[in-house]
Design brief:
alpha+beta; 5 strands; about 15% strand; CAP_dom
Length: about 190
């Protein structure tokens, strides 16, 4: 009983806002996180701190996409959409960005992250890989600005990043609010 009270006391003393939720990364997810931060450093930008909350959202989304989304040019809903098959509100994110709030609010809805989230997504029919995903985003005028804080993102400071790679999809979530977290490689 004393031991339990001691543990509870120690947990009580922990500062608020520190996320204790441990989320493990696959080797490919850890590689993606490293590659993005290395690329940013090569551009003279600071690394972005890992967020377990944004990673929880990223990992949920790549699984939702893999299991419930049909990647097709005929699909009016783009890969920032969420299906009805999860513990979240579904939405069809269209290319006119009229449903952008659906994406922005997912981190708060799914993981309790304190701010809005901004996602980039990658699809490869042969299976998503970290290097191919980053290379694709670097070549994309719509995605590179989020990674390097340019264009409309120039005045934004990313303080948190989450990653998910599963099946044919890779996604990265960026956030302004700090969410200091540790991660481990999944076994």
């Amino acid at each position: 009983m004393r031991y339990l009270l001691f543990i509870l006391f120690i947990l009580y003393l922990q500062p608020p806002g520190i996320n204790k939720q441990a989320i493990c990364l696959s080797a490919e997810e850890a590689r993606l996180l490293t590659l993005i931060n290395e690329y940013r450093q090569d551009q003279g930008l600071p690394q972005i701190s890992y967020s377990s909350r944004l990673t929880k959202v990223a990992q949920a989304h790549v699984r939702d996409l893999e299991n419930n989304y049909e990647f097709s040019s005929n699909n009016r809903c783009n890969p920032h959409s969420w299906s009805e098959n999860g513990e979240w509100s579904s939405c069809c994110y269209t290319n006119d960005h009229k449903q952008a709030e659906c994406m922005w609010n997912k981190p708060k809805e799914i993981s309790g992250y304190d701010g809005a989230g901004f996602e980039i997504a990658y699809f490869a029919s042969s299976g998503a890989k970290a290097r191919a995903g980053l290379d694709g985003w670097i070549r994309s005028p719509a995605h590179l600005p989020l990674i390097i804080n340019s264009g409309q993102w120039e005045q934004v400071t990313w303080n948190a990043i989450g990653v998910g790679v599963y099946g044919k999809y890779a996604v990265v979530w960026f956030g302004r609010e700090p969410d200091p977290s540790d991660y481990s490689i999944c076994r």
